[in-house]
Design brief:
This protein is an alpha+beta fold. It has twelve helices and 16 strands. Helix content is 40%, strand content 23%.
Length: 359
């Protein structure tokens, strides 16, 4: 096992430089991070890590009490773990970078359940993510199923990505409605609003957020687009490849939708293979551009799983909440749903707008 101390000048949030608001928000996130949806800023880092480091799995995690929560993870179906089963436990304990070139030669990891059993990880590298007080609040890590050597090029790239992960973890650039929901609701209530498969808000959580946005839109007369999106022919994916592949298609489709929208838009799993996306502060033209990014990101990139490569398309229906619009959330959802059915009936893999109601 190879360990290195992080230097003091590598800490992101020095108390002499960070504002009180930044420190407060950082403490909020690290103390209550569980059951929060995926964010593209974290997905980008783990996606880049797999490519830049040629690693099978990359993850950005946080801890609370005796549990580890995966804010973002690539190519491993895991949401949370007891800290006793975590491969990152030594990073948490020591606050140091750790490189394990072969887990079967390491006293701490050789008996870990994820080394002894599937996925049978043989390589581990972990980087401590420190909060404003210098405490290890999470890890950035990469894993492989084969042993590998750590050279200076790998180590430099890995540390660069670790610092990027730390900056994003304590960034204040968060969508206020979602941050407020996390702050307002206890962990058990958020768990009831969280979809563990896709790492999105579920129907209940998404509708609660969208209701808040609708109230603001009615008060300040803002516009937004409400998009109902449904994966095409999803039943055939389960029938042909099995539910395991179907779950991977749902997970990767959810990540693609989040990647295609803006940070202040809202994505939730409405049920089954259906999603709701709220696109904030847009007219019909701008809303179409965002929706088209979603459609293209799904249709142009077949979803690759370990068992199969699955061509996937998505159909969408959109209701625009115009200024002066007094429709309820239920009416907007119904309008978007009817537009979605029209997309399905007219060929799928397309976007249809609901008719604008008469004034």
């Amino acid at each position: 096992m190879k360990q290195k101390d992080m230097k003091d000048d590598d800490r992101l949030l020095d108390e002499e430089l960070a504002s009180e608001a930044t420190l407060t928000l950082a403490k909020l996130h690290t103390s209550d991070p569980f059951y929060t949806p995926i964010e593209e800023r974290f997905e980008r880092i783990t996606r880049l890590a797999c490519r830049a480091l040629d690693s099978e799995v990359a993850a950005l995690t946080v801890i609370k009490d005796d549990r580890q929560w995966f804010k973002s993870v690539r190519n491993w179906s895991v949401t949370e773990l007891p800290l006793s089963e975590s491969l990152c436990s030594e990073v948490f304990k020591t606050g140091k970078e750790i490189f394990v070139e072969d887990t079967l030669d390491d006293l701490h990891l050789m008996s870990n359940p994820f080394v002894c059993h599937a996925p049978k990880f043989r390589f581990y590298a972990g980087f401590p993510l420190r909060n404003s007080e210098g405490e290890t609040a999470g890890t950035f890590c990469v894993l492989d199923s084969k042993p590998r050597k750590v050279d200076s090029q790998f180590e430099t790239a890995f540390k660069d990505l670790g610092h990027m992960a730390q900056r994003e973890l304590f960034s204040t650039e968060l969508y206020s409605a979602q941050a407020e929901l996390v702050a307002k609701l206890g962990e058990s209530r958020r768990a009831a609003m969280f979809d563990p498969l896709t790492h999105l808000w579920n129907r209940r959580g998404g509708m609660a957020l969208i209701n808040e946005v609708l109230r603001d839109a009615q008060q300040f007369d803002h516009s937004f687009g409400l998009c109902m999106a449904d994966l095409d022919d999803f039943k055939s994916v389960n029938d042909r490849f099995g539910h395991g592949v179907g779950d991977e298609v749902l997970l990767k489709s959810a990540a693609a939708i989040v990647r295609a929208v803006r940070p202040d838009d809202i994505v939730c799993r409405y049920g089954g293979e259906e999603f709701i996306v709220l696109i904030r502060d847009v007219d019909a033209r701008a809303c179409f551009r965002v929706a088209e990014r979603i459609r293209a990101s799904i249709s142009q990139s077949p979803i690759r799983t370990r068992e199969a490569t699955v061509p996937t398309t998505i159909s969408m229906g959109i209701a625009i909440r115009e200024k002066g619009d007094d429709r309820t959330l239920e009416q907007l959802v119904q309008a978007a749903d009817q537009a979605l059915y029209k997309s399905k009936d007219t060929g799928r893999d397309r976007i249809t707008f609901a008719a604008v109601p008469d004034p």
